[in-house]
Amino acid sequence: MLSVGVIAWIGAVFLAAGFVKGVVGMGLPTVAMGLLAVTMPPAQAAALLLIPSLVTNLWQLFTGPSFGGLCKRLWTMMAGVVLGTVAGAGLLTGTHSGVASAGLGAALVLYAILGLLKLGFTTPARHEALVSPLVGVATGLVTGATGVFVIPAVPYLQSLRLGREDLIQALGLSFTVSTAALALGLFKAGAFASPTMQLAGSVLALAPALAGMFAGQARRQAMSVETFRTVFFAGLLMLGGYLVLEAALWSSAS
Asked: pTM of this prediction?
């Protein structure tokens, strides 16, 4: 049974994570997993993430203009995401919680550095058939081990030089598939010890996530996104470093 303080913390985390997603179009699982993993096992945090992530990503997916075309173009990447996530989900169970925390921290640090340095690359169309499934599997393994969907999917999708609305929709597609695959992987790995309670907690987390997302969308119209992105990535860098250090200290003490 969760205490009132823990419930309040979960609500605050998803409110903040939803706000980030509303402003920059992504980041809900990154922020939520990073903050929740400080106070609970990564598998429990990932279970809470499932419903808010799925609903917000479906909304993002179906409001874009190119659903059919993107599915046709990216289906091999999505298949790789599913395979990699299911294969790697065992790392989020309690036995490997220290490894999962370190992996999450490393993913956050890498993502933050890429964002702060504004590093990017272009993937030629002739290479997509080979690169897409490899990126999908790599993204799935990171998702299965950490609950974070962004590495390397987001840099890769940005490298395709899609139009703005197509990119937002492609991110929604990738995140939706990752969320569904993570749920399947966690179930397969036996991470749902109390599925009813975990599902209820995930449903309750949906309200603050949606509230934060809509507030973030409104705020986006009145602030510099570049300024917010700098603060966002700097915060992720510090949080990721903390999680890696914490996992290293835990490993040396055990």
From this structure: 0.80
